[in-house]
Amino acid sequence: MKKNYSKDEKHLTERERVFVLQMAQHGDATKAVHAIYAHLSDQAARVVANGLMKRRDIIEHIDFLKKRYEEIERYVDKI
For the chain, which residues make up each domain, given as ranges? Predict the structure, then answer.
């Protein structure tokens, strides 16, 4: 079940999707990597997070989801 989080047709792996979701919700890249790879040390998680955060497609997906979360929050506040 592949699901894209942005308008374009870039596909992410399951682990990348989990990373994107965690980043959009919490904003902590190291913790987002720990959600994917629980066995990694903090230093190794920072290295993986740094590599993922350098990818333009990952950043685009995170930004897309953050905007959607903001829209939902504004909508809920109006209710």
Answer: 14-78
Exposed/middle/buried for residue 62 (C-beta within 10 Å: 0-12, 13-18, 19+): buried
Q: Quote the CA–CA distance of 15 and 41 in Å, as a whole number.
A: 17
What would the two tokens of residue 31 be?
Answer: 């913790």
Give buried/exposed letters for 12-38 (b at 16+ CB in 10 A, else e): beeebbebbbbbbeeeebbebbbbbee
Length of the chain: 79
Per the CB < 8 A criterion, the answer to whether 44 and 50 are in contact is no
Average pLDDT in the 19-36 region? 94
> 52 in helix, strand or coil?
helix
Query: Quick check: pTM over 0.70?
Result: yes
